[in-house]
Please model this.
Amino acid sequence: MSTQIVVTVSEDRLKAWVTLALSEEEVEPVTTQRIFDALRAAGVVHGINEETVHALVAAPRYNHKEPVARATLPEKGQDAVFTWLFPLTSEGKPKVLPNGSVDYKQLDIIKNVSEGEPVCRKTPPTQGIPGTDVLGDPIEPPPGRDVPLPKGKNVVESPDGLQLLAKINGQVDLINNKVTVLDVFHIPENVDYNTGNIDFVGNVSVGGDVCAGFSVRADGNVFIQGSVDGGIIEAGGNVTIANGFNGQTNGKITCGGLLRCKYLQNAHVDVGTDLETTSCLNSIVYVGETARFVSSQAVLLASRVTAGKSVEALNIGSRNSTVANVIEVGAGPRVAERAASLPTAIKQCQANIENLNRVISHYQQLEALGRLADEKIEELTRLMATVRNADQELLLLQEEREAIEKKMKESGFGSVNVTGAAFAGTRIVIGSESKLLTSDHSFTLFTRAQDGIHTSPARM
Model:
């Protein structure tokens, strides 16, 4: 008996094996040279593991495919990356005065740029490093992903296409993931009958008050030097009110970013990220991330506060109040409602796509037989466009469901940190768990565990 050497190469040419097969024919003994010759005859010239070859000669295993060569895989290119040439966040922290109050007038919240100034730089994607298959042929690497410059309003691309430049003098900001330079519209005194309602594409600065019944709407940030009494404030970015906000009957604040104000009273507030205020009385507050009731005079009374991540307060409620506070952290009711509605929306979209595809398939069969009328051919084209749009809508719904599920998982275990006292009658809700306080809790951190809401010493 003697041995034949069989070389096998994978279809993708990323691996090669050697099999030692017993044969009745006269064949030379197995040597490393014979194996190398067999590999070369099969075209295998790259990635050969010589130690494996020597081991196979020293201790042969028959009729067994022994891996002896492996390709060098390519390295994917680096994706394009952006360098922001301005701060993405502004400290803008209010000054806490010695008496414990907060001065919201001393803020540094403007990121000014001049016309022609670079605001964003792109590093182009790279091509990657080629690999080599076992036959010695190159394997082309997947190139890095190119991404267009995040061009918003009032910016232009540089001639080399690698920078964004400010088109005007103004404030640079990142809005909806696009670099935008905003003008600032300044009202020197009150927003009242002399000005009418304000609706501006950039930032708005008000030197006085916003009076009852008037509104200020801005795509960017809103800064109000005075107070708001019964007005409506809507901003795509941050809102700062140096004094305070009294909603009276119809007043409301909606903003996509951070809200800072001295106090909230009779207010309905919807904040995209964080809230910082001193007191909150008889108000309904929705906050995307963290609600902070700052300063040594902070009070939260007769209000419902819902925050995505956490609530930080000095005191919640009072011994004399008969109106309970509800403090809710975690995903919040709006996210939960949307999460509950998405399965139905996805199912309806899928059913719509199935119905469209059935009609399209029927029309295509008739078209193949030459029996589809001209007007039906036009309808077929419209149906195919409709199903493409429906496919895109389904993808967006599925991505939204995944994002909400992730958000609920991450934020479902938020916290309520009370550095003063949470008085009896306050209801703490964290995710799906609820706890009604039947006694006062001092210096307490409320968190959620698998078996309910736990208490521990507050964080400072």
About this structure: The longest strand covers residues 15-23.
